[in-house]
C-alpha cells in the first residue's frame, strides 16, 4: 500500500504540473482567441471587450487556471471557439475511435513485439536473422508511409480491409476490420523496438549466472525459460513497452489523417490551426493523463514481476 500511495502521489504531482504547463503554454503562442473569433475583421473596442468578458479573458491567469482545472475535473472543458459546441461533446464523439485505435495498437505491440523478440532470443539462426531484419525495416519506415503501403496492398489491391472509416456504430467486428490496418501502421515502429529489446533481454537472461546455476541443478529448460529467463527479461521490456504504448495517443494523428479517421488526433490538428484554445487544452490534458496512468500501471507491474521493486519503492 505504501508503494501504491507513493506512486499515486507522484502521479498527482505530475498531472498538476502538466496541467499548468498545458493551460499556460498555449497562451504563449502567437495570436489570441479574440483575434480568431473576429477573423481579421476590424471591430470596435466594445466588441473585443465583450468577447474577452464572455470567455473570462480579463481574469487573472491563476484565476482562469483554477477555474479551468475545477471545471475539467467535472468533465466541463468549456466551449469550442470554432463551432460553439461543448468540448466535452466533441471529445465524446471522437474519443472512442482513438481509444479503439490505440488499444488495438497496444495489443499488437505486446503480442507481436514481445512474441517475436522472445522467439528471436530463444531461437538463434535463420529465424533470428529474419526477425532482426524485419525489426530494422519496421523501425526505419515512417508511420505515414507504412499506412499508405498497407492501404495500397491490403485495401486497394487485395480488398481485405476497408480503405476509410472507423466502423463506428457497426459493431465490434466492423471496428476491428476498419482499424486493423491503422493500428498496425501506428504500432509498427514500436513493435520493432520492443522486439529488439526483448530479444536482447532474453539472450542476456538465458546466459546469466542464475540461469546457469539452475541448469547445473537439473532444472529442465521448459521450467527454466518461463520462470527464470522470460520473467527476469520482462523488466526492461515492460519499461520500453509502457513508454511506447503511452505515446500512441500523441502519434495517432498521423494515422488518423492517412486513413481519414474521426479521432481526437485529427481534431487536435484542426484545433491548433484554428487557435481553438479550449479544444487543444482538453486534448492535451487527456494525453497527459493517459501517459501518467500508463506509467503508473507500468510501475505497479514492476512490483508484480519483481517484489524487490515493491520493497525498495516503499522503503
UniProtKB/TrEMBL annotation:
Protein name in the entry: ABC transporter permease
Keyword Transmembrane: yes
Domain spans labelled ABC transmembrane type-1: 95-298
Stored Gene3D superfamilies: MetI-like
Main location class: membrane
Domain of life per record: Bacteria
Keyword hit for Membrane: yes
Transmembrane segments: 99-119, 131-156, 176-197, 233-259, 279-305
Membrane topology: Multi-pass membrane protein
